[in-house]
Design brief:
heterodimer; A: alpha/beta; Rossmann fold; six-stranded mixed sheet; four-stranded antiparallel sheet; B: mainly alpha; MetI-like fold; two-stranded antiparallel ribbon; 14 helices; 2 strands; transmembrane helix (chain B); cell membrane (chain B); transport (chain B); MetI-like (chain B); BPD_transp_1_N (chain B)
């Protein structure tokens, strides 16, 4: 049975915008699903909907996580799942971390939200997690604040926070978009390594086809809140069935081919619908 | 942090000096002749010339200002010989009206102003900030709309009106409260509260309105921040999310404004004290202005400015304690 099953998911915001439209997909235990699409295709909204973090939006359909329908879940049930079984890494770690608290505390706090342990013990977990995500001198850095970290290091902190309770599902919402290319590669490498170690399932949201090729088992291509195409990553890259997927893949400049005068773009929405 | 503190204090001292100089110049160019004011109505030209000499009014401005500054920091002596009068540190001169040292006047009036300011501040902070935070948490609810309407009302009502209404209804019509008068908290706590409750409420009505709106705005913004979403994503209880992650950032601007407001009020709540006839620093200022008592006006101005400047320093320091980013940037 799949760990996560999304069926007929729709999200409509208060202003009438339908961000996600009857979306269905599933994710097996231990596998990685990459959700790709342009800005505004509904990728991030989908990941927030899974965690029930869309206040004021109307969410319908079913999101079944390990047999529990999250759309109909009570707030307390959702809270018990968040962080403990489903964790998320956001795009911009600078704004996602609280500037007022030490990073060690913020990780320890996540741990203590679900484990009844003394603060000192949770802090030790935090230091261990910081070490695990490759932060040098973790003991000292745990006592520092988010603004004292570089972009890549902050994202490592976010990952440490997300993984401290060994969740079954990790949602990574464009975790490398705000980083420069070399740091992106490091973070992706780290995520891949941790995923292998822990066996966590990953829902990876991105607009970067290169990232998809490197990480995904399966790909879900989204546009305008709908699923355009879904399938194993090799098949989708080799033989994209949908014109939109082909167009999206054609947008990626290739290092092994001559550089065109103009980079390719995807056709407007109407043309592919 | 020590350097930061010292630098702030240095700037504050400089600021006070500038304020002092400016106020001094303003009084220098005022049309009233200080010697005439000091002497009273029936006063011959001879006597005026004598006073002018004693006060040093015939000397150049910078010389007078220098003597004033020396007086503030070390005390000074007016006149010479048998007629000389010594004015001890910190010397702000003598009142033209009562001949009392201005510093002593200020110090005896201060407890009343402090009583009014502190009591009102506690009241408006508790009521205003709580109402604002609840409104932010229940945005669009009936409570929110009612609280914000009440806040607008509180801000709009002029102090002299509410003060007179309170006095008329609570003191004269119902007789529930005595006429406000200066009582020490340490002598008779009950009478102190009875005397102060109206001035407190009068001021708090205005400020609570302002703070409710400020706190609501800040809290709404704070609740929409990414790190609040992160806190929820961690599975923290809503209470912790609100109190630990949203409230603290929302309170930093409130603290800033509060420091300024309290500082300004400690220098005298002019209208409130005047309407209730309470002998605070504000009442002293208004009396001094009415009788063109220049040394007192100058003294009150400096005194009040001193509180505002000090409040500024305090706010900067508290800000650094509250926000680690400020702390590390210094």
């Amino acid at each position: 049975m799949s760990l996560l099953e999304v069926s007929e998911l729709s999200v409509v915001f208060g202003n009438g915008v339908r961000a996600v439209d009857r979306l269905s997909f599933d994710l097996d235990r231990g596998s990685t699903l990459c959700v790709v699409g342009e800005s505004g295709s509904g990728k991030s909204v989908t990941s927030l909907a899974i965690l029930g973090l869309l206040p004021g939006a109307e969410v319908s359909g079913r999101i079944t996580f390990d047999g529990v329908n999250l759309v109909a879940a009570r707030p307390a049930e959702l809270r018990a799942l968040r962080g403990e079984r489903i964790a998320i890494v956001f795009q911009d770690a600078l704004s996602a971390l609280n500037p007022y608290y030490q990073v060690g505390f913020q990780i320890a706090e996540a741990y203590r939200a679900h484990r009844r342990v003394p603060m000192a013990q949770a802090r030790r977990v935090a230091v261990r997690m910081l070490e695990r995500v490759g932060i040098p001198d973790p003991e000292r850095r745990a006592r520092e604040y988010p603004h004292q970290f570089s972009g890549g290091m902050r994202q490592r902190v976010m990952i440490a926070m997300a993984l401290c309770l060994e969740p079954e599902l990790l949602i990574a919402d464009e975790p490398t978009t705000a980083l420069d290319v070399t740091v992106q590669a490091q973070i992706l490498g780290l995520l891949d390594e941790l995923r292998r170690e822990t066996g966590t399932s990953v829902l990876f949201v991105t607009h970067d086809m290169g990232v998809v090729a490197g990480l995904a088992d399966e790909v879900l291509v989204m546009r305008g809140g709908r699923a355009v195409e879904r399938g194993p990553v090799d098949r989708v890259f080799a033989e994209p069935a949908e014109p939109y997927t082909r167009a999206l893949l054609a947008c990626v400049p290739r290092i092994d081919r001559p550089v065109p005068d103009r980079l390719a773009t995807v056709p407007p929405m109407e043309a592919t619908r | 942090m020590i350097w930061y503190t010292l630098r702030r204090l240095g700037v504050a001292a400089l600021l006070l000096l500038v304020i002092c100089a400016l106020t001094f110049v303003i009084f220098y160019v005022m049309p009233d002749d200080p010697a005439q004011q000091a002497c009273g109505k029936a006063c011959g030209p001879e006597r005026i010339a004598q006073i002018r000499d004693t006060l040093g009014l015939d000397r150049p401005l910078y010389h007078q200002f220098g003597s004033y500054l020396v007086g503030v920091f070390a005390g000074r002596t007016y006149g010479t010989g048998a007629l000389s009068v010594h004015c001890g540190f910190p010397c702000l001169g003598f009142s033209f009206q009562t001949n009392e040292p201005v510093w002593r006047l200020l110090v005896t009036r201060l407890p009343v102003s402090v009583s009014i300011a502190i009591g009102a501040a506690v009241l408006w902070l508790v009521v205003g900030v709580t109402a604002g935070v609840i409104s932010a948490l229940r945005r669009g609810s009936l409570w929110d709309r009612a609280a914000m309407a009440a806040a607008l009302g509180g801000i709009s009502l002029p102090i002299y009106l509410t003060a007179l209404l309170f006095q008329y209804v609570l003191v004269i019509k119902l007789g529930w409260l005595p006429h406000p008068h200066a009582v020490s908290l340490f002598v008779d706590p009950l009478a102190w509260v009875q005397s102060m409750i109206m001035p407190w409420t009068t001021l708090a009505l205005l400020y609570a309105g302002l703070y409710a709106r400020l706190a609501r705005g800040e809290m709404v913004e704070s609740l929409g921040r990414d790190f609040v979403r992160t806190a929820r994503a961690k599975g923290l209880p809503e209470r912790t999310v609100v109190l630990r992650h949203a409230l603290r950032p929302a309170m930093t601007p409130v603290v800033t404004v509060f420091g300024m407001d309290l500082g300004a009020l400690l220098g005298g709540a002019l209208i409130t004290e005047s309407v209730y006839g309470l002998p605070g620093v504000g009442k002293l200022a208004s009396d001094a202005i009415n009788s063109a008592d220049q040394p007192v006006i100058l003294g009150v101005t400096l005194f009040a400015a001193g509180f505002i400047v000090l409040a500024n320093v305090a706010v900067d320091l508290v800000y650094a304690l509250l926000d680690p980013r400020v702390r590390h940037a210094t």
